Amino acid sequence: MAEVKIILEKLYPPCTMPISNENLAIFLRFAEQYDVEEIRRQCEQFIIGSEPSLEMALLAEQYRLTTGVGSFSLACHA
Predict the structure, then answer these.
(1) What is the model's pLDDT at position 5?
(2) What is the pLDDT of residues 4-58, one digit of tens each?
(3) What's the whole-model pTM score?
(4) Which of 22, 26, 70, 77 is the most buried (most CB within 10 A)?
(5) Using only C-alpha atoms, what is the Rg of the chain?
């Protein structure tokens, strides 16, 4: 039930729920399942602006994020 609340807060303005490390996987899963491109784009931007980590690289790969993620993934493996 908590995940539904998080998604609804993101979908209905005013959007006060920022994407964070704690809710990123929830948003990505939702965006893929329901084809919500705007949330997917915001998640991708969050990953690109984040400190490189293996978890972020795995999420980017799992959800097939592309813009700038290749360099992000490479930085994680360096």
Answers:
(1) 79
(2) 878 777 777 666 679 999 999 999 999 999 898 888 999 999 999 999 889 988 9
(3) 0.72
(4) 26
(5) 12
- The contacts found for 50-59 with CB under 8 angstroms, 24 or more apart, are 50/21, 52/76, 55/21, 56/24, 59/24, 59/25, 59/28
Contacts of 78 (CB under 8 A, 6+ apart): none
Could you tell me how many helices (H) and strands (E) the chain has, helices first? 5, 0
Distance CA 78, CA 6 (A): 34
* Cα→Cα distances 32→14, 51, 64, 74, Å: 22, 23, 10, 24
Per-residue confidence band for 1, with pLDDT thresholds at 50, 70 and 90:
confident
